[in-house]
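Quick start: what a row looks like.
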Amino acid sequence: MHKKSLLPSSWQVPKVFRDRIGGLPGRQRAMLEDGHLLIILHEPPGPDEEERRARFFWRKPDGSWASTTEGSGQVGLDTHLEDFETVLNRLDEQEEAARTANDYFKLMRHLNPLVRTSRNLHDALRKAREMVPDDKRIIDYRDRAYAIERQAELLANDAKNALDHAIALRSEEQAAAGKQMAIAGHRLNILAAFFFPIATLAALLGMNVKTGLEPETVNSLVPFEAVLIGGLAAGALLALFVTRKNWRL
């Protein structure tokens, strides 16, 4: 039982072409046999597309063309290249409008497979040009494919650089925020250390225990003043100890 050919059944191409094409189109490439040139190309891929949709372009020995795209003859190959140019122009507009790292990440998801496809597109047309050196129109197709490849690579590089810059900028903002939080926490620790002794003394002296320093037994503010001054002095020493940079255990 013969497998269904991906090539149109109406095409009178050499049998070797059908034999060399399996159930999947495979990579982009050009084949020449008995003056027949067959070019297998892929449609512009979308993001997260694993399967590639193939387009076939057949140049007959008399120089006429047939294709599986819209349009007949060489118009089909023109349309194929225009599809890439249209996609790249749209992505270029999206790159200019992108502002956040998420925007650039979405753009890179679309550009990465497009860069690989455009590179293989140029390579296939370059080989087709070598196989049929007398057809000057193929030179134009090859040059357009090179321009598409270069535009895709430049756009991908610009998007990647912008993505790296956005990530670096966000990291700097987070580092600056972390530094401010560390400074605020350090200041809070100093305040806590400064008031810790006096708070401890106030808690101890506020207990319902006879200490001999009650107002009814000591008619003076000296105990209160002594506790206040002692607590503040102890707090200052403790805060100085906490903020000291070079101290030994």
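That is the whole record. The CA atoms of residues 140 and 172 lie 48 Å apart. The chain has two domains: 15-168, 185-243.
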